[in-house]
User: Which sequence fits this backbone?
């Protein structure tokens, strides 16, 4: 079954839950691992949930694709002990059900230069509408 929801249909739906399987690749060493995720596309809040721990804002969509993107700046502060910037960018095809995304994390030095890159992961997932088993 393919995730083929038109923009008009999506406007009527509040959210779609997808069961996804695929791989995540560590760009540094090129090693891929199998993963399974439950992804929720929430049209009411305009977010994609389930790829990582955050709800990712939908930044654009048309009849064939949904785009999402978020940048998080975790600077040092009284209660924050991290000093990095992370970026998650991706898309979900409404025609094929393929979700592709990339997560990158940089040292917080003011520039997203390759020399400041701490980690990079690429996701490739094949998704379909989740169905309750019983």
Assistant:
């Amino acid at each position: 079954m393919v995730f083929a929801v038109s923009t008009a249909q999506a406007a009527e739906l509040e959210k779609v839950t997808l069961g996804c399987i695929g791989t995540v690749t560590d760009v540094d060493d090129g090693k891929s691992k199998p993963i399974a995720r439950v992804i929720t596309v929430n049209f009411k809040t305009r977010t994609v949930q389930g790829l990582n721990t955050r709800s990712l804002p939908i930044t654009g969509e048309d009849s064939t694709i949904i785009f999402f993107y978020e940048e998080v700046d975790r600077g040092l502060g009284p209660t924050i002990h991290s000093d990095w910037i992370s970026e998650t960018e991706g898309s979900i095809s409404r025609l094929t059900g393929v979700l592709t995304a990339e997560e990158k994390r940089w040292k917080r030095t003011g520039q997203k230069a390759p020399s400041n890159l701490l980690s990079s992961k690429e996701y490739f997932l094949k998704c379909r509408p989740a169905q309750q088993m019983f």
About this structure: Residues 57 and 113 are 24 Å apart (CA to CA). Strands lie at 15-26, 32-42, 47-49, 56-61, 65-74, 84-93, 98-107, 117-129. The domain at 7-129 is CATH 2.40.160 (Porin).
